[in-house]
Design a protein that fits this description.
This protein is an all-alpha fold and 169 residues long. The protein has two domains: 9-72, Diphtheria Toxin Repressor, domain 2, CATH 1.10.60; 85-167, no CATH class. The chain has helices spanning 7-25, 29-35, 39-50, 54-69, 75-108, 110-120, 125-136, 140-167. Helix 1 packs across helix 3 (39-50), helix 1 packs across helix 4 and helix 5 runs antiparallel to helix 6 (110-120). Keywords: Cytoplasm, Ribosome biogenesis, RNA-binding, rRNA-binding. Pfam families: DarP. InterPro entries: DarP (IPR006839), DarP_sf (IPR023153). It comes from marine metagenome.
Length: 169
């Protein structure tokens, strides 16, 4: 005997699929392409990204929910959304670490710089030169420019370290 789903169960499942489809709206076009969505669903999500009117966007979300019910297996979509969230969190962590090291290096000078190099596991001549320039500069505008360059170089180093650490796992 085949058990029939209740109307409430079907509605909960369709609302869950619609919510999953709404999460697709926030993804970039590159991320959408990597998921491998159905053409109609991909177009509906792309259209929703460009909509500004609340009523139109609400109707578009309902259409996305309807198209999501036609998806055979929503697990790859759910996994792609979760991985994009992990990437965003990782970028925030890298940014926060970069700010931390920049502030320490510009306040504590060479001691913090040496500790940063120990953390990285190698020296960076460009960063050393930038810190020396920052210490010797008296003009506030030039110091701010050098501080931004220090930030950028620290960010690049931390990003490369994270990339190397995750590729070896």
């Amino acid at each position: 005997m085949i058990s029939k789903q209740s109307k409430s169960t079907k509605k909960r499942e369709s609302l869950a699929l619609q919510a999953l489809g709404e999460q697709l709206i926030g993804l970039s076009s590159e991320q959408l392409n990597s998921i491998g969505l159905d053409k109609r669903l991909h177009k509906a999500v792309a259209d929703a990204n460009s909509m500004r009117g609340r009523g139109a966007l609400k109707r578009q979300k309902q259409l996305i929910g309807k198209l999501m019910r036609d998806v055979v297996d929503p697990k790859p979509i759910r996994a792609a959304i979760e991985s994009s969230g992990m990437k965003d969190r990782l970028e925030k962590i890298i940014f926060n670490q970069t700010e931390y090291w920049r502030d320490r290096i510009t306040v504590e000078d060479t001691d913090a710089l040496e500790e940063f190099f120990e953390h990285l596991g190698h020296q960076n001549d460009l960063l050393t030169n930038l810190v020396e320039s920052w210490l010797n500069e008296v003009n506030d505008c030039a110091r701010m420019k050098i501080k931004r360059l220090i930030f950028r170089e620290i960010h690049n180093e931390i990003y490369l370290k994270v990339q190397n650490d995750t590729s070896t796992v």
